[in-house]
Amino acid sequence: MTIEVLDTYAAMREILAAPQPDRPDLLRKMIEPAKGMYRYFPGEVDLVQMHAMSGGFPIDRDEEHCLAALEELRAADAWGRIARALDEAVAVQREAVPEVVVPDLVVLLSLADPGDEHLMGPGLGMSANGSVSGYIWINLWPYPENLERIEATAVHELNHNLRYTTRPDFWNPATVTVGEHVVSEGLADAFARQLYGDELGRARIGVAALGDDAAFATVVSGLGTTGMQNFVAWVHGDSHAERFGATPVGLPTGAGYAAGNRIVDAYLAATGKTAAEAVLAESAEVIRVALQ
User: Fold this and answer.
1) pTM score
2) Dihedral sign from CA coordinates of 70, 124, 171, 275
3) What is the dihedral of CA 6, 202, 241, 212, to 10 degrees?
4) Could you report the per-residue pLDDT of 121-135, keeping only the tens digit for each?
5) Three-state secondary-structure class, residue 3
6) pLDDT reading at 117 higher than 90
7) How many CB atoms lie within 10 A of CB 58?
8) At 56, is the secondary structure helix, strand, or coil?
9) Which residue, among 228, 221, 222, 250, has the nearest Cα to 237 in the 3D structure?
10) How far apart (Å, rounded) are the C-alpha atoms in residues 101 and 98?
11) How would residue 41 be classed by pLDDT, with cut points 50, 70 and 90?
12) Pairing with 140, which of 115, 122, 190, 236 sits 20 to 30 Å away (CA)?
């Protein structure tokens, strides 16, 4: 098992300093080692277009702003901290569940787009994905709150990666439910909290809704929903649904994350398990135990 945190600092610096016509090819070269994270997309994925659609740093404006932010990431040792956190978390996870499958991992850290009002506002300057086996993508703007959560963010995404590498059947696109997505976010946060504490371990997007009982009840009512196009509304909330062209369901930002934390905490309390020990828990059982 190897963990390769790509040297995107050097790549991003080169891109932002290059003449604009050269930037798309340089960006494509930066993302190429991690293009396998798009392997389930139909057809050939345009890496530059996907970068822009995902809120990655712009290649036609805000150069000085982005270069300054890039230096903040470097000063914070973001790349080194991610690598060390993942090594430590893998060791904790293997000790708790020896049968967990740890793939070779490629980690791509990208600077976010400071001009993306949704990402920088409701999204709190952070997006990430660790659900595709072998790849972790972290896209962030160096707000202080994001910098101090670098390790927890990486470990959260690692939890997804190990869960779905070991049990790919948990995410069958034809049958997967909102409940699986909600539980997976709760498990990933619980694992990060096990290692870094509640304040740093919770994904920021879900914190504001933690005490919202009405939102919790609404999420619970939708746990059996299928159709992955619906998940963003139930998990990320209405503002994200509107951003990505999905139908809002009356939820505040991060409601699914908050509900996932509450459900998983109830499950862990009832079973006496640690988050690491629960990485492969079936979502239906987690929900049943938590809500009974």
Assistant:
1) 0.97
2) positive
3) 180
4) 999 999 999 999 999
5) strand
6) yes
7) 20
8) strand
9) 250
10) 8
11) confident
12) 190
